[in-house]
Write the structure tokens for this entry.
Amino acid sequence: MPDFTSLRTLAEQTAQHAYAPYSNLRVGAALRATSGAVYAGCNVENASYSIGGCAERAAIAAAVQAEGAAFRLAAIAVAAFSDTGTPLPVSPCGACRQALIEFGIEAGVSFRQPDGSWVEVDVDALLPYRFILPAQ
Ligand SMILES: [Zn+2]
């Protein structure tokens, strides 16, 4: 499993930048590309709820913007906090699990469990029956 120490710290820092006036759930994600570069993102909500965006996909967008189609995901850490700063156990949502797999089927994912400890899993374990576009 990759080293998540610095990614967890960056995810926690990035969560402080979240725009979350509706849910008050501040989420940060920090990922390491196979190139070694690190990218981060936070959730950005909107009054039209459904167009809000997740931290994980914001980090992916930053990575693709920098590296283009060659971007491959090695590891990602996700950190979430309440509006009072309490760490919360939040794993990537279903859409983000699909997005993570797109860029790294063997990537590692780390997030907090309910007891506050960090779990580390392969992204494949988070979404075993993922969508795969059939060959045409
Ligand atoms: Zn998500």
